Amino acid sequence: MANINDNSSTDLTSVIRQYQPNLTVYEDFYRDVHQHPELSGMESRTAAVVASHLEALDFTVHLNIGGHGVVGLLENGPGKILLIRAELDALPTLEQTGLPYASKKEMVD
After folding, report:
1. Mind telling me which InterPro entries this protein's record contains (predicted)?
2. pTM (global) more than 0.85
């Protein structure tokens, strides 16, 4: 049994640092989509960006599902299936956050 005063917390910290994922690509994706919002039914650019990222991760991509819908299928053998659903559209609002990745578009609904 491990002693509470041993170096296990230090070991855990080093493991976390060693295996911490690089999230830069996802941050860039978020900022890009945030800068270029599209209203419901007009999400052609957003759908293309999502499809491109899924293809880069070796997903089989199906486009134009019910309009601009995108399905990414990753097959990894028999077993349980996981479905994740997300919205692609944005609201027509003037963003005044001052963030470097603030929306660059003005939209009318």
Report:
1. Amidohydrolase (IPR017439)
2. no
